[in-house]
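We store sequence, tokenised fold; for instance:
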Amino acid sequence: MIKEDIEFEYLVKSVSEDPRCQEMKQYIQHSDVTTFDHCMDVARRSFRFVRRFHIKCDEKALVVGAFLHDYYLYDWHTYGDHLHGYHHADRALINALRDFEIDEKVQGIIKTHMWPLNLTRVPGSREALVVCMIDKIVSAKETLNRPKEVKK
């Protein structure tokens, strides 16, 4: 393992190993990717992005916020909320506030990660902007890399 991977694992461990976050393994995010794996990928890629481009930021807030950005804990495919894209950031924030001690920066990351879909929730920090951007890239990759259905 390289030093950067060890540092990332150290930062994400406080949330990723929590039993409540393990619940995210039960829910599918996009295609066949679980919410847990999606959030881990967003957190890891956000961390690598700031390191590669030497962006000064609060790396702990970045990683924790990225990991908790979709901490809504339900199957959005069957939940019945057709406006999930607009509402799930609120549910993720409520859950994160209930289960973890998170600061305002982490709260902002979770709350604004769906910009520009939620036009009035503009990312207010470098960390929030990075997570918002990386989430869009990861979500597009997951959605476009769906397994092809077998024709009969």
The chain is about 60% helix and 5% strand. The beta strands are 28-30, 33-34.
